[in-house]
Amino acid sequence: MRWDERLRMVDHRDFFSRASGKLVSVQAQTIWAHMRTPFDPFYNAYREDVAADLNTLARVWNGVGPAKGT
User: Fold this and answer.
1) What is the mean pLDDT of each run of 10 residues along the chain (70 residues)?
2) The dihedral of CA 12, 5, 48, 60: what is its sign?
3) From the DSSP assignment, how many helices (H) and strands (E) are in the chain?
4) 8 Å CB contact between 59 and 65
5) Contact assessment for residue 67 and residue 14, using Cβ atoms and an 8 Å cutoff
């Protein structure tokens, strides 16, 4: 199972959806602290712009083209 290199930001969503039922993982008990994101608004806008990734996922998951590494 490989990452789809065409995806910039939502690669985890695609990977773990395709890996469902094929991967097993274990996570030790962990405590997470959620803090305010230190990035500036310009970077956050760039980081949250996932339109191209969602278009790629729509093509791949609708059978228009195979995802790499599947």
Assistant:
1) 84 84 74 73 87 89 59
2) negative
3) 3, 0
4) yes
5) yes
Q: What are the distances in angstroms from CA 37 to CA 30, 32, 56, 65, 70?
A: 20, 14, 27, 35, 34
DSSP 20-42: TTT----------------S-HH
Q: How far apart are CA 61 and CA 65, in angstroms?
A: 8
Predicted confidence at residue 70, as pLDDT, reads 45
User: Measuring CA to CA, how many Å separate 10 from each of 13, 47, 61?
Assistant: 5, 10, 13
End-to-end CA distance of the chain: 6
Burial category of 56 from C-beta neighbours within 10 Å (exposed 0-12, middle 13-18, buried 19 and up):
buried
